[in-house]
Amino acid sequence: MLDGLVDPRGDHVGPHAKVAEKTHAWWRVMCLTGVDYFSTLGYQPAIAALAAGLLSPIATIVLVLLTLFGALPVYRRVASESFRGSGSIHMLEKLLPWWAGKLFVLILLGFAATDFMITITLSAADATAHALENPFVPTWLHGQQIAVTLFLIALLGAVFLRGFKEAIGIAVVLVAVYLVLNLVVIVVSIGRVVDNVVVIPDWWAALTAQHGDPLMMIAIALLVFPKLALGLSGFETGVAVMPQVKGSASDDENNPVVRIRSTKRLLTTAALIMSGFLITSSIVTTLLIPQAAFQSGGPANGRALAYLAHEYLGSGFGTVYDISTICILWFAGASAMAGLLNLVPRYLPRYGMAPQWAAAVRPLVLVFVAIAFVITIVFQANVDAQGGAYATGVLVLITSASVAVTLSARRRQQRWRTVGFALIALIFLYTTIANIFERPDGVRIAALFILGILTISLISRVGRSFQLRATSVTLDETALEYVMSDADEYDAVRLISHEPGDDTDAEYQEKSRDERRYGHIPPGSLVIFLEVHPSDSSDFEEDLVVTGSARHGYRVLEVVSGNVPNTIASVLLEIRDKTGVIPEIYFEWTEGNPISNMFRFLITGMGETAPVTREVLREAEPNARRRPSIHVS
To answer: For residue 98, which of 189, 200, 289, 613 sits 20 to 30 Å off, Cα-Cα?
Structure first.
């Protein structure tokens, strides 16, 4: 289950890789994100018609305007500032440090999990709908929506257990074929509209009778367009795949200009293509398909364009269209699974808020498949029933991205951009709230994911309290000289744990005198002070850098960390490995109630330092003879 698929630092950018070994042209990567974005054409027109009725084209135009002038500018900015594939969540993590930032990230991960999990289940359910509505499908499969959907999800899990390769090559073929087939269907349907001159007047007459004057129609469209928010999916995936985009040899690792520019081109092109298809598909499906056909159980429910393909191009072409739709919808689930396998190991293990096996792909795949099974059974593999949850996840992520770029612009004192992004954030906030009130299932599912993540995170953080947290320990030249000289000359390395204070000669003199007296340090032995300077205690994994310096005639090792005892343990083990000598360290007992000190340690990384350091060492080094010695007085 773990062999060859573990990334201990949780930094991998795809299902099975720590780094993108091969990059691709931006248009090819666009197809990878497009299997999620473009595949919504399989169900978006039907959902729009069901939600907005005859107003569907007008509401879709509002959605497209929000896409081009809202989501697109936001994510172009995200691409500039979060170019390592972490997306808007990473921006907020940087803007909101310490525990508040971690908690906010965990909540966003709950909504992201909702987005990606519902993408898997909804796409599989819609693929099933396309398959079962095909006239060539055996009759014994009719009524087996749940079983077929579960089979597709299980097949998806099996592929990821095996190892998903050449995803971009497959995505290019699927997206190209799917878009060409959709173009054919829409062009033929537009021809039918042109030939039947009464279709548009009849639609307008019915719309006028139903909603009154054009201003009233626009007002109602503004109210109902949040139900169409599924058409905004794909932007977060677009920035998540940035490491796959080919840059330039001249790109700076901290500012890959060419890769950023190519990703912006990817986002813009995808938005323009999708906008064109959204508007035209909404028009032809509203004009040519009876409203009753969109209702639950109707022949166009969840498959409006497929309905037109069979109606006007025959069962042969319709079957080809169904197969293409099934493939891209199934692959959209693969894209979502890759997104989950990217997000969870990137954050939770690094926060200490997931078991260590969560950095491996295969166990996570089984967990996600099991969750997808539960969601599918609860929602009875119904596309319409899952639409609200999907839209909630998408909208919350886009809203958080809007807030992130607003805060970023404000921090950089870009006044007009701050105002513009703030306005976009308010629009998306309204859209999110409206969607939640209209379809609360989404926020209920997200709440379950958030509760699950927070519970697991708390249990895991407590359970991993006594683990070594340093991903690396580096001693600078001076620090290495101190410990090596003591080891070579005296065959001993003795350290005194010292809490940084006023940095006076008297302070170090008093500490040295007390530890020598009460800690029974052998007379004449040289000692080195070890100081841990506190940083963000919410961080779990850290790269430690130990620097050596001379203070008032005393040798001092300094390290910055958010956790004191675990850091001391890591430094002691590194000194042992570098020198070949078992180091000894001297502490004084911590004042205060042990229970309150325990909570201080869990929250601030400080507390009862000596016994916790000893416990960390005991778990890290089972051989007592190789374990650094702890003296407390």
So the answer is: 613
